[in-house]
Amino acid sequence: MAIYTSLAVPTVISHPSERCLQWSDDGQACITTKAAVHIMTPDPGINFSTPPDIKASPGDEQGERPLGWFRTMIELARGHTHLWPSMCQDWGAVTLGSLDLSVRAVTCSPNNLTSRGSQGLSWSTQPDYGITPTPVLDSSLLAMGNRAGSILFLRFNRNIDSEGSVSHIHTELLSDQWITHVSWSPWVTHGIGYCESLLAFSTAKGNVGLVKIVQTLQSNSNVGLVQEYTTSAVFDVQGPICEADKRGVTALTWPVLVYTKPGLVHLWSWPSSEPTWSGTRTLLLQTQNVCTGSSAISPVSGVSYVLHRDVLILALFDGSFHVIHNLSVEPTWSPLYADDTLTSTELSRASRALFAKVTPGISRMDVNRISGMISYDSQSTLVWIYEQVALRPADFSYKHEAKHECMLITAPFWQLNDETVLPSGSAPVHHLRALMLHLRNNARFTALCPRILEILSQVPPDQTTSIVLPPWTQGSTDDLRLQLRKSLTTHLFGWPNLLSLRMRLSIADMCWKLCKDPEMQVQCGQVAQGLLAAISHCVLRIQVRHLRAIAPVVSAPDIPFVLREVVQSLLPGSPQDLADEAQSLSDTITISFAIDPAVTGLHELCPACHAEVPLQDITSATCPNGHTWGMPPLPILLS
């Protein structure tokens, strides 16, 4: 069995849970440990020349390439947050108040929200309001439960001139018990500008409930270069899902509501939702006897849903795996077919075999405590972290924290065919990690590369041709700069066809890197060049239309930039409509300004000899001394 990654993480994990290991919207795996947060970025899809920080694998088995990771560690500040002994001299306050603080929970914001990120219990994704281009608007909500039984809903306000601020949206009082878990369901769009989500929560006494959140989008009356919107949210507490039974919830997650208690897995589905069943289903966990420490009452430390097999995979702290079949029809532990090897027993055995392979010399007395588990590709490849040094429950000898070491493993549990791998990718880029991972198999890549290039070469229709911008008549003011920034951001990153082109270019770039056949590598380069040209034309059209909209307020210092855009839009290979728009812009500018012939030449200086290089081709240039400057490598362009 192949192992893509096996790397040691010198740390202690004090809170094993299904969120100990989680993916961010930017495609980074976050590991929550006692004293730090480790941010792991997988190597596939990263486009810069620096080698990954970590690249460990037991070997190149079955043509698999080792999976590299870039690691960033954020340590917990060791300062005293509160001096409890100064308030009370009781023994409990003095001893417990002096204990080391530890990281308990981490949540990741949606991408492109802030460079700082945040911590909390659960941060929702950005809802899709069904508007194209996607407006530059943050509608995500950060839900934070507290010991007073309330959930606070916060929102990050992104400001132009600062890192932003956090605003309080709503507080919902739900119980007189501690809110222990919070989990968002995916947003569902019910119409343009209208979407809803369910927030599940649990309390210390075992209650499980729901809060329904409805968000609507309203357009502002003031119209600038781009339409602006505001959001409003309505919060509605639903009926209880589970009454208090004094058994604490150990995991709470979706796609259907999955909440676990010691020895039990509870599934809940909303009536009239996608699964054909509704209400609550309860399944009894069975002990997978792989070691002396195996126990079905161990807390759940990972949950993963495999759509194409319709199975839910759970990892327990004792190192075992459990598989629920037929999740969307009628959940059961039994596979639908007698020859199906995707069972709790087989996955637990495979996990134990991988543990033995990475940590030689283990016996049945040793337990591989899984503290967190996630899926790498939403299919057969899982990522999990466990205590590397063999743990024996009967061994009570003290071990200093510095001697603790965990192991991060990435490995497939069953084989996938090419027909399953090929349609597995989606956007944005971190969802392409499934395809990027499986293409690293040499035999699979050779078989799939021609078909992938055929798919990539099918350029989607250009949606930027439908952009209509009103003329700007309010003068060159600070408001114009703000409007330009918002409008350019919306159109450069809000059109689905541009996103699709960028994703296709990422895959084409990876194929070019992996290809060993010179002829096939040339084909990869040709496909990438075509995609790059399509992206350039979309970007140029967006810029030209913005320049035409603000042409009345263009000043003399802006002329070189405007003419550069015109020249690039008139180069051979540009669409005729783009060339016509650029020529119209040039005519408008020429009427208003006396153009210096030295400016229209648009000469650059050669980086090697500082001779003038005329701009004749957007992809290459040659100076009088023979220095040739081609298009930058694809990784530089993608960065």
Task: Explain what the structure shows.
The protein has a domain at 441-601. It is 24% helix and 25% strand. It contains twelve helices and 28 strands. It has helices spanning 91-96, 344-358, 418-421, 433-438, 442-456, 478-493, 496-514, 518-549, 559-569, 576-592, 597-601, 634-638; strands at 5-9, 21-23, 29-32, 36-42, 69-75, 122-123, 142-145, 150-157, 165-173, 179-184, 188-191, 194-203, 208-219, 229-237, 251-253, 257-261, 264-269, 279-284, 300-306, 311-316, 321-324, 370-375, 381-387, 406-412, 603-605, 612-614, 621-622, 628-629. A hairpin with a 6-residue loop joins strand 25 (603-605) and strand 26 (612-614). Helix 5 (442-456) packs antiparallel against helix 7. It starts with a strand and ends with a helix. The model is unreliable at 114-120 and 631-639 (pLDDT under 50).
What is the overall silhouette? globular
Computed Rg: 28 Å
Total count of helical runs of at least 4 residues: 12
Instruction: Give the mean pLDDT.
Output: 83
What is the CA-CA span between the terminal residues?
Answer: 35 Å
Question: Strand-residue fraction?
Answer: 15-25%
- Major sheet attributes: 5 strands, antiparallel
Helix content: 10-25%
Low-confidence stretches: 114-120, 631-639
Number of strands: 28
> What structural class should be given to the helix and strand makeup?
alpha+beta
GO molecular function: histone acetyltransferase activity
InterPro entries: GTF3C4, TFIIIC_Znf
Domain Transcription factor IIIC putative zinc-finger: 601-629
Pfam family, one: zf-TFIIIC
